[in-house]
Each structure stands twice: as structure tokens, then as C-alpha cells.
Amino acid sequence: MNILAIIPARSGSKSVPNKNIRLIAGKPMLAYSIEHAKGSKYINRIVVSTDSEEYAKIGQQYGAEVPFIRPKEYAQDESLDIEVFYHCLKYLEEKENYSPDIVVQLRPTYPIRNPIDIDNMIEMLLNTKEADSVRSIAPAKELAYKMWFKDKNDFINPILTDIPEAYNMPRQKLPAIYYQNACIDVTRGKTIIDNYSMTGINIMGYVMEKNYDIDTEEEFRKAEEYLKIISGGNRFVFDIDGVIANLVPDNNYSLATPNVRIIDVINRLYSMDNYIVLLTARGYATGIDWKDTTVKQMKEWGVSYHELHFGKPNADFYIDDKMMDLNKLLTMFN
């Protein structure tokens, strides 16, 4: 079975200049999608469709084929995916007599994706004959049931009307809504060629919780930080109480309980070959020696670390130029 990954990499991005080849954690953005395709157990051909000779060389350097330079008419700001993919498939058919059974679209603006998701989506299509395609989707943060159209006279009408006055209902009683996150699209080749469509009619959805699509400088920085962390070799210093351990009255640390969520994150960071240091103010103000209790708790709670230090000064506020917000770290890994 021919399963083709196509990575559309047009030059000329306006929001983040040359974002498709911009270096992120030491590699061009385009390289990551090529590596993701290589990580799939099903994909057996990878093609980059680009209008740029420079992008083409980078694609080839990282192991993709670039059998053509995309014509300018299919590389405009308003060019549609179907134009790009139809051109690619017709070229391969006419020049090589090659026709893919399944086409996987991997946009280069996603430097972070799991090849397992690619394979899961391919399997969904392989196992569901009536499906034309599978799209990656994510839970919508804002409900379309509470969104409106506004006319020229300032009157508004709800976007969705299948539930009467849904806009007046609590969020909890409304159906879950998903949006297409543009991370992975899997389509039958005949859907593109015969129906001139990227999806066809019968579309399945594959839910993804994490999204790292890059369209702004802020999103670029967020993705780069995550890639730096998961690549290992970073040094993390964690406070214990209020972070690893839940706070207890009167600083009686023998009663402390573990913060399971942050311990899971610490252990994942440790497994990625990051260096973990624990730093605590236990006993700084009172002079009580909490070392044995602390070491025992870390062992019982399953905390993986390299160093444990006492003597952190007690304070009401800590200001540091390398401070990372705890909720930000939890969001990144949960």
C-alpha cells in the first residue's frame, strides 16, 4: 500500500517571516515534520511541496523528496490545500505512474507532534471503509453555542440553532465542541483526485489535547521552550513545600502529602535526562533538622532527583530571572 506524506512548505510567511525554515531548538521547522513522517510505521514516502529552492534543499537534507518546485499559482497567500495536493498527486501520477492509497498532510508549522498519532489516524482510515478522511481535532475553548453573527443593523443571531436558546444554558449542559487543529490530516488518494476534495464527505475526528501550531512569535517561543526541555540536558531546581509537597499547618512537615501531578512531571523531566535539584527551606527558621524525614518522603513518594539541598532562605516572596510558573509547567506536561 502506498502511503504518502506531503509537507506543504510555502515561502513568504508574513506573521513569522520564513517560519517554515526558521531554526527552532537548532533545526529548521520543516525538519521536524519530516522526522515525524519518518517516525511513522506506515508512511513509505515523504514529499515536500515548496515554491522555494532554498526550502527544497533543506527538505532533501533531512530526508524528504522534492520532485518539483511548486508553480507560483499554487503558492499564493490564498492558495487552497486542494490546489497544492491535487497538483502534487497529478505530477506524481503523470511523471512516475505513482498513485498513493492514503495521503497524510503534515504542516511544517507543527514542530511538536507524536508519530503515534499519525499511525493511529492512518489505522482509523484503514479500518473504516466508509470514511473518506480523518482530521485531527481538539476541544474548543470557546463554545460555538454562545457565538453570534451580527448584521449591519447591530442585531445578532446565534451561529448554532439546533438547541433552542443554547446561548442561555450553562456550559456544562451543552455538547462538547471541537475545532480542526491542522496538525494531521489523513485522506484517501482517490478523494483528492476523483472528488477534488481534501476531506470528502465522511470525515472522522481524532482528538488531540496538545497543540503547538506556530503562527505568532509567542507561539514560536512557547514551542521552542518545550523542545528545549524535552531534549534534555537542562538543570531544574524545585522547591519542596508548596510544589512537591502540599503545604501543612505550622510547618509540621512530617504530615506533608505528595503533590502527585508535579511529581509526575518531575519524573518525566528526569527520564528526559534533565538534571533535577531539590531545594528546601525546611528548618531554616526553626533550626529543626528535617533531613531524614525529607529523604524518606522523597523515596516513598517516588520522586526522581539528583541532588537535595537544605538551607534555602525563608521568604515571603522570591524573585528570579529564570523563574518558571508552576501552572505553566503543569499545563505543558498534563
TrEMBL record:
Question: Mind listing the GO molecular function terms for this protein?
Answer: N-acylneuraminate cytidylyltransferase activity
In which pathway is this protein known to take part?
A: Amino-sugar metabolism; N-acetylneuraminate metabolism
Kindly name one Pfam family recorded for this protein. Answer: CTP_transf_3
Record's catalysed reaction(s): an N-acylneuraminate + CTP = a CMP-N-acyl-beta-neuraminate + diphosphate
| EC number(s) on file | 2.7.7.43
Top-level taxonomic group: Bacteria
What is the protein's given name? N-acylneuraminate cytidylyltransferase
* One of the GO BP terms on file: N-acetylneuraminate metabolic process
The UniProt similarity line reads:
Belongs to the CMP-NeuNAc synthase family.
